[in-house]
Amino acid sequence: MSYPVARKDDVVDDYHGTKVADPYRWLENPDSPESRQWIEAENQLTFGYLEKIPLRARLKQRMTELWDYERFSVPWKQGSRYFFFRNDGLQNQSVLYTADSLTAEPRVLLDPNTLSADGTVALAGQDITEDGNLMAYGVATAGSDWKELRVRDVRTGKDLPDIIKWVKFSDPSWTRDGKGFFYSRYDEPKTSEALSGANYYQKLYFHQLGTPQSQDTLVYERKDQKEWGFGGHVSDDGRYLVINVSRGTEQKNLVFYKDLKDPKAKVVELLRDWDAEYEYIANDGTLFWFKTDLDAPRGRVVAIDLRKPERKEWKEIIPQGEETIASVNMVNDAFLLNVMKDAHSVVRRVSRDGKPLGELALPGLGSVSGLNGKRQDTETFYSYSSYTSPPTVYRYDLKSGQSTVFKAPQVKFDPSQYETEQVFFQSKDGTRVPIFLSHKKGLKWDGTTPTLLYGYGGFNVPLTPGFSVANLVWMEQGGLYAVVNLRGGGEYGREWHEAGTKLRKQNVFDDFIGAAEYLIAQKYTSTPRLAISGRSNGGLLVGAAVTQRPDLFGVALPGVGVLDMLRFHKFTIGWAWTSDYGSAENPEEFKALHAYSPLHQVKPGTRYPAMLVHTADHDDRVVPGHSFKFTAAAQAAQAGEAPVLIRIETKAGHGAGKPTSKIIEEYSDLWAFSLDQMGVGRTQSVAGTQSP
């Protein structure tokens, strides 16, 4: 295969005495004429290759057919109104509806599909006033993390003049009287740095409804702490502004508060030690409840009285258990705990004084989301899904303890023909690691099954069972979809997470490689039939695995990956990831990073498996230069016949808000490429149709 020429420069950096070449540094600027030429040439090569795969059109057809089903979000209530999202099937963006009751005819409150012709403008967070009459909402364009806040009158469906710009990593939070909201923003960047410049010095503001942004009140900033981020949330009783203080993606935070009843009140530093994670749940006057992992790596619930905030005065309400607490809400004056047991959901209800009130019956090994509400509410809603069950929304009556189906999707497949099992294997150092295996019933394990191994392994993010049309299509082809719960994630609490960070990051890659070896040893699959996939930190995972063990995999699909581990912290919010990765500016951490950095571990003359790198030109989370430089290096190094291609999406970002049409196209390409490289699908049927 003839790849586009990528110029090599004599760029060399000195890291603590170690010289490191960076010949493709120029590709970090995606807008330079030379970069644009390279991007266009790569896309022409990639899409020209994909168009010749017979299975591609059939996969897209089937994926479009399956994706065309009505689906709903978990509803929530403000004032006397209910709010929920609905997608009729193939709408690029889900539409926000409101209704006066659960049985009333809903009406459209905001349809993001009308904001752009191609569906690349998305709704990005919202908050509704206590009386349900006004909504502050964010709008993001082309997948960017930047968003603009606007205000809509729920009663009329019309926008007010208020517009707030340069907001990132922040949602609005209304005061109880609905006269304004709190939000956080950064200073306006230079035009040339909007998508790549580092984001520092976030500030917390209050916007008075009906006034220009220039008159917004600065509530809190720290000129001495450029990395601190602030999230302001108004307590349910309207009395306090609870300020979550973060430092990048570190799983530790501070909590401050401000008494909104007193206009002259100062911000009070309640929890001011970077010693644990603290998550505000609710309050009863000055009594505040928090979920924390302080002295409890799997989580517990404590009560803190603002009048006696000393640690010796704290009261433990719910002690740490065997499972990891994922979330806690207070509804109907009791705690609703969503806990993880071996990476799947268990829901328990606990009284204010810590007494068990029962467990919610769930259909199987799946994930629960929702369970939101206010202290006085007698109902809540939640969604249940699994790898083979699309999300069903339930109404949970907290008086009777009964759950009833509120909205059940109808997907054009028979879930009884599929199954999920959970197995465990021992990683390189003996650690017990779980894998979810989902597939059609009746498959024979003879080493020939096309297998997609997916992982993430970072930032305390757990991978719990969830439904995906794309993964269902993979299983329809007779494929095995395997999800491994790696160290670095949040499945088993703080210790599990920290075992996959910084100098211990190699544990994550060892776990992933160990999962692949286990699947092969147990004859679920074999190297030619094994594809690995991951996005973002998971893209790093795939890049590290394929450079460390190029002999082990048949296909690699690194998506929007962090692939240059020496320079990631220099762009947008990349500096925030040093809590997980470490930094090349630290000599010891540099050695660890350099040892696994996918870009720097590409070795000329190596036979790499087939690769389809995928990224987006507007990704301002993990800038596309990571994928560009890695692809150029891998193409130059490839000694085998397998193709090394890159798919560069336009008018898209890191993934949030991506239109349905683009999602379908992307997965159709990824699956077609993978199955074609495995030699699958050229003579097999696709959902009843005969392929060439």
UniProtKB/TrEMBL annotation:
<keyword id="KW-0378">Hydrolase</keyword>
<dbReference type="InterPro" id="IPR023302">
    <property type="entry name" value="Pept_S9A_N"/>
</dbReference>
<dbReference type="GO" id="GO:0070012">
    <property type="term" value="F:oligopeptidase activity"/>
</dbReference>
<dbReference type="InterPro" id="IPR002471">
    <property type="entry name" value="Pept_S9_AS"/>
</dbReference>
<dbReference type="InterPro" id="IPR001375">
    <property type="entry name" value="Peptidase_S9_cat"/>
</dbReference>
<keyword id="KW-0720">Serine protease</keyword>
<dbReference type="Pfam" id="PF02897">
    <property type="entry name" value="Peptidase_S9_N"/>
</dbReference>
<dbReference type="InterPro" id="IPR051167">
    <property type="entry name" value="Prolyl_oligopep/macrocyclase"/>
</dbReference>
<keyword id="KW-0645">Protease</keyword>
<dbReference type="GO" id="GO:0006508">
    <property type="term" value="P:proteolysis"/>
</dbReference>
<protein>
    <recommendedName>
        <fullName>prolyl oligopeptidase</fullName>
        <ecNumber>3.4.21.26</ecNumber>
    </recommendedName>
</protein>
<dbReference type="GO" id="GO:0004252">
    <property type="term" value="F:serine-type endopeptidase activity"/>
</dbReference>
<dbReference type="Pfam" id="PF00326">
    <property type="entry name" value="Peptidase_S9"/>
</dbReference>
<comment type="similarity">
    <text>Belongs to the peptidase S9A family.</text>
</comment>
<dbReference type="InterPro" id="IPR002470">
    <property type="entry name" value="Peptidase_S9A"/>
</dbReference>
<feature type="domain" description="Peptidase S9 prolyl oligopeptidase catalytic">
    <location>
        <begin position="466"/>
        <end position="679"/>
    </location>
</feature>
<feature type="domain" description="Peptidase S9A N-terminal">
    <location>
        <begin position="4"/>
        <end position="408"/>
    </location>
</feature>
<dbReference type="InterPro" id="IPR029058">
    <property type="entry name" value="AB_hydrolase_fold"/>
</dbReference>
<dbReference type="GO" id="GO:0005829">
    <property type="term" value="C:cytosol"/>
</dbReference>
